[in-house]
Amino acid sequence: MATEDESPSPPDITVMLKEQTSACKAARDAIAAGGEVVLYDGQPPQWMVVGIAATRLKRSLKIGLTTLGLDETVEILRARHRDERLRTGNIVAADRSWFFTLYFDSTGTELLACSGLKNERPSQENGQELQLHRPPPVSTADAASRTTQNRQ
Fold it and tell me: Domain of 57?
């Protein structure tokens, strides 16, 4: 069992993954199937962790990615743990099909929440694949003419 000064080991994490969110069982299964567990030493403030999770939820819903427990995680972290520092970790499924984020108290001894994100392409809207917003490539001739126009 981990002390307050140590990070929990992967077997302890499996035990810690109870029913905090709907992603916990899938995260336990991912560890049992050989998934990689990574725990981070940093302790970002609660508001930062909630902001990242909320942004991930909003973006995932917008582009149609499959999530597990992410909405529950945002609610858990918003409702509790204000003004606290949190620790995080990740589980990557052995087949890379799922990516889980673990949220711990500042000592790493209490698992607060777990969320999962399926590794998949964004869904399609109107029969077309969603496109990332990237500027079109600029040819050398276009770049030269823009430079000339800017100098005039």
Answer: 10-124
Q: Which two tokens mark 126?
A: 């109107």
What whole-number distance in Å separates Cα of residue 130 and Cα of residue 147? Answer: 32
CA neighbor of 103 nearest in space, from 46, 25, 34: 46
Name residues whose C-beta falls within 8 Å of residue 74's C-beta, 6 or more positions apart in sequence. 50, 53, 54, 57
Is residue 140 one of the residues assigned to a domain?
A: no
What is the total count of domains within the chain?
1
Using one digit for the tens of pLDDT, what is the confidence trace for 76-107? 999 876 778 999 999 999 999 999 999 999 88
Q: Does residue 65 lie within any of the structural domains? A: yes
Over 50: is that where the pLDDT of 17 sits?
yes
- pTM score > 0.85 for this model? no
